[in-house]
Write a structure and sequence with these properties.
eight-stranded mixed sheet, 21 strands, single chain, alpha/beta, nine-stranded mixed sheet
């Protein structure tokens, strides 16, 4: 009897060892199939001048979409259910304001016209934007209503039918319990402020930049291009970003001038109040309607039950197209923003396709369009999901890849909002990496709100963006920081983010493997990520579950 028991035990141990070995082999072969050379090969095409910067509605972005779809097809990824296509078609409207547009400021009996591009740009534009008569202005601080912080710029003012003027930032804070301390919150996001004003009945908004856009040249770089919106999301409201020098006009005759407002910001004594000036606007525009595509490929999960839940891995493939020339170069190639992220997405799709045993859950790969125009591709997806959002366990977004092969730390942007921080910790341990917070130097630039993961979080789906940190095994923090600052100041959103810069394929491969490890274990786990109870996104998740959206 003892011999029989020992034989049974031996067979059980041997079988368990074989299954464990097969599982390791299954993962390891796919893991090792990820190659930096392949990432660079995709990058060489996607960031080439032939694709003209992958601007929306261009031939270049169509070529990029076709290339991604061809790779998905080559790897055997499934198409969108009920279709014979990898494309989710999205209707857009593009509008370019003309210099003949007229914005007038009425101060008592005096009327002043301010000049488009020199004095202001439009956040949103189109033929529907028209303010025919002098309309009252009201200053609303930062334009924020944040009940969880007991903060309301609208408490003492009525903005119905008026133009709301506000600053581009949020209250200064040293306290992590108040506007997350030094970390930027979604309340500083311009679109969020605009929607808050319109929900309160405002006829439009005027944003005064002083932190996010520290120089008017930066505003020109971001707003001198065509305004693009989803075709179903047009608005008749006025939405202006004004040069601070011109903004002084808006405060003429009021109890406070603009310098007083900046002092209020520094002393934590912001006030809201009506302004004496009024404005009118008549715009002239060049418009077009077109469609672009999200590119979606699918690998169905292996578990009979869990395959009905979904992990979304994403990267945006659009960029700025052809724009203002710098040093005789007008093609904004977007090599690191975000052709390399899409190249890694393609390589991850190939790796998952190479798995002999697929993860338990279904893995969905999405290359988003229109991220550079306000996350429009991902917003469209969350409005029109291919798979129910309440069954989508997470979005892992890729926007930029490691600069340095010897990175010793990673940053999980958005991880602290949910239990994804636990999954990230497990991956970090396997790679012998530390997890650090967003460096204070980049909290505004790398905010959770600045890429497609934010669209999913706003729709209730736990989301994360994994980037390299400042710790490095062979370089000092100052050297790494200096390289990041150099990219942000001299190449980001310029024609110089192209293939002429050095791109480390070893760093790209290592970062891609890290994301594969994170995504594989997340998609193969029986446990779903959950929002923490104090997360600002938990209500959206509960609503999504209740509505089965």
């Amino acid at each position: 009897m003892k011999i029989l028991i020992l034989k049974i035990l031996f067979v059980f141990i041997l079988t368990s060892f074989q299954i464990y070995s097969q599982d390791n082999s299954n993962f390891n072969e796919a893991f090792e199939s990820i190659k930096g050379d392949s990432v660079l090969k995709h990058l060489q095409y996607l960031a080439s001048d032939n694709l003209e910067g992958r601007g929306l509605g261009s031939n270049g972005i169509k070529l990029a979409a076709n290339y991604i779809a061809e790779k998905f097809n080559e790897f055997g990824l499934e198409k969108i259910p009920g279709t014979d296509s990898y494309f989710q078609e999205i209707p857009f409207v593009g509008s370019t304001p003309l210099s003949s547009s007229v914005l007038k400021v009425f101060i008592g009996n005096e009327i002043k016209s301010i000049e488009y591009s020199k004095d202001y740009y439009l956040f949103r534009s189109g033929q529907q934007t028209f303010i025919p008569s002098a309309t009252e202005l009201v200053f609303a601080g930062y334009g924020i209503f944040a009940p969880e912080f007991d903060y309301n710029d609208y408490q003492s003012i009525d903005v119905t039918g008026k133009i709301v003027v506000f600053l581009d930032s949020e209250p200064l804070s040293e306290d992590p319990e108040f506007f997350n301390g030094h970390e930027v919150t979604h309340y500083s996001f311009a679109d969020f402020k605009i929607k808050t004003a319109l929900r309160r009945g405002a006829a439009g908004t005027i944003l005064i930049p002083f932190e996010r856009f520290s120089a008017w040249e930066n505003v020109e770089r971001n707003f001198a291009t065509e305004d693009i919106r989803l075709a179903y999301d047009l608005s008749s409201s006025l939405s202006v970003i004004i040069n601070p020098e011109a903004a002084e006009l808006l405060f003429n005759g009021s109890q406070y001038i603009l310098d007083d407002i900046f002092k209020m910001h520094q002393t934590h004594k912001m006030k809201s109040f009506p302004l004496k000036a009024k404005v009118s606007f008549r715009g002239f525009f060049k418009e077009r309607a077109f469609t672009d595509k999200n590119v979606i490929g699918i690998i169905t999960g292996s578990d009979d039950k869990l395959k009905e839940s979904y992990l979304l891995i994403s990267a945006h493939y659009d960029h700025l197209g052809i724009g203002l020339p710098e040093e005789n170069d007008s093609i904004y190639n977007g090599a690191l923003d975000n052709a390399i992220g899409v190249s890694v997405l393609i390589e991850l799709a190939s790796a998952f396709a190479n798995l002999n045993i697929k993860p338990k859950r279904t893995v969905v790969f999405i290359a988003f369009t229109a991220e550079e125009h306000g996350l429009l591709g991902s917003v469209y997806y969350t409005d029109n999901p291919v798979f129910p959002l309440y069954k989508t366990i997470s979005n892992v977004n890729i926007d930029g890849i490691a600069f340095f092969r010897d990175f010793g730390s990673i940053v999980g942007i958005g991880a602290d909002y949910s239990t994804l921080i636990n999954n990230l910790s497990e991956t970090a341990q396997r790679f012998q990496l530390n997890i650090e917070n967003i460096p204070k130097e980049f909290q505004g630039l790398t905010s959770f709100t600045n890429s497609d993961q934010y669209a999913f979080a706003s729709a209730g789906v736990p989301a994360i963006l994994i980037q390299e940190g400042l710790q490095n095994k062979t370089k000092s923090r100052e050297e790494v920081l200096g390289s990041f600052i150099d990219y942000i100041e001299y190449r980001y959103h310029t024609p110089f983010d192209d293939l002429n810069q050095f791109i480390d394929k070893v760093a790209a491969e290592r970062h891609a493997k890290l994301i594969f490890d994170f995504c594989f274990h997340l998609s193969d786990s029986v446990n779903e990520p959950e929002w923490k109870t104090d997360s600002p996104f938990i209500k959206a998740r509960l609503r999504s579950i209740a509505e089965k959206k």
